[in-house]
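Reviewer 2 asked us to include a model.

Predict the structure of this chain.
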Amino acid sequence: MDRQSQPAAEDLPQRVWVFQQSGSGVEKIKGIGKYGKGLIELKVFDIDDDLPPVIDDATAWLPQKIEADLVLDYLKHPDLSDELAHLCRRFGVPVISSGKKGPLADALTPATCCALARQKGLGAYARIFGLPEFRVTTARGRIKSVEVLRGAPCGATWNVARKLIGMDIEEAKTRVGLEAQFCCTADPAGWDPISGKSPVHIAGELHKAGLVKALKNAEENP
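Predicted model (structure tokens):
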């Protein structure tokens, strides 16, 4: 293949490596596979072992080299997350460790997967997944259509959007947050001591904010 006929980097599937522990990322993996189909190529590393409380050497569970465009950390063991972050730094690969607290090398640590802001360097994943964004049309005070421009990797945003069709606009502003919480796969026990809210509550508020913003720019159809 000559140089001019080579596909641009953005035309190639983004190589995303996912690290999960005892199925901790299964719903997100399904959502990424469904809504990122054709744009994201997933490789999943499953760790199902009974792990010791402290891991000094993670080589038995993590690869020696990272050959990905992006890494998603759904691990539960803090030592594995820490080592994974350092491994990604070593190979210059961005890593997203949603909901993790404490320093993790250069890892991005949004409060929830749907709290990830748009930013350069994260490829197709960050264009499709992160802070919820909608395009809405309305008719006679009700929601006629909802298009998800960006949403939660677990698929909650797309599930919520379908439930809003035909709903009264003012009711939808209230219901969207509740519906997002029902669909959210985050751990509700993971309370943030600063905000006093769980990831599930945060997800609900982010979906509400995204819908309210979309409604301000909504197209009115007869």
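The longest strand covers residues 142-150. Residues 133-220 form a domain with the Enolase-like; domain 1 fold (CATH 3.30.390). We have added this to the supplementary material.
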